[in-house]
UniProtKB/TrEMBL annotation:
Family annotation (SMART domains): HLH (SM00353)
Keyword DNA damage tagged: no
Record text on subunit structure and interactions: Efficient DNA binding requires dimerization with another bHLH protein. Binds DNA as a heterodimer with MAD1, MAD4, MNT, WBSCR14 and MLXIP. Can also bind DNA as a homodimer.
Origin superkingdom: Eukaryota
Keyword Coiled coil: yes
Source lineage: Eukaryota, Metazoa, Chordata, Craniata, Vertebrata
Classification via SUPFAM superfamilies: HLH, helix-loop-helix DNA-binding domain
Provenance organism: Acipenser ruthenus
Chain intervals for the UniProt region annotation (Disordered): 28-92
Stretches with biased composition (Basic and acidic residues): 64-76
Name by which UniProt lists this protein: Max-like protein X
Amino acid sequence: MNQADPTYSDNGFDPTFFADCTRKGSLGSRANSIGSTSASSVPNTADCMTDNDCSPTADDEDSDYRHETSYKESYKDRRRQAHTQAEQKRRDAIKKGYDDLQAIVPTCQQQDHCIGSQKISKSTVLQKTIDYIQFLHKEKKKQEEDVSTLRKEVMALKIMKANYEQIVKAHQNNPHQGKGQVSDLVKFSLFQNIMDSLFQSFNSTISVTSFQELSACVFSWIEEHCKPQTLREIVVGVLQQVLKYQQLQQP
């Protein structure tokens, strides 16, 4: 050991050095005590992270999650209700359509009375409706043909009316012209020739198998051979024949 070290005095021990060491040891013990106390007073961060009570936003997050879940369930309920209402509305519209068809179509009403309280099936209603529409189309076509025929008859009657008016007007203007020039025999011959000409077409057209067929043939013959233009051609032809016959009879 070095003899020059001030730690040691002449008798081998320095009291000053001992006092400094004692003071330093006391300070170190106090620092360690303060450090341990501080460490024990600080909470464990890992434990707080795993404990929901230690997190300040845990309740807010749970509330947001519950609110979002409730909103999704409410949205699904609203969509389900809207879909149910739309489906019910569609079914009501279809049912109303079938009821309207059943009320409009006469054959459905007749069948309804026949079967009593039994409900008519939808397929039957549709089939009856289709049949009734086809029947209406046929009736419409027939009525259009009848209207066309009546219009032709009206036109023919107007032409005949105009011709008779001209004849009457001509007689009124010249009441004495041609008086006594045509004998009754000539008139009868003229009428006979006209009827003979008409009878030829009538005899070749008419069938007397049944009254219904006879009626149909008569109407068809009138429409075909008794048109104003056809009658006019027949009368003109007969007049020409009578005129030629009279010319031949004259000396």
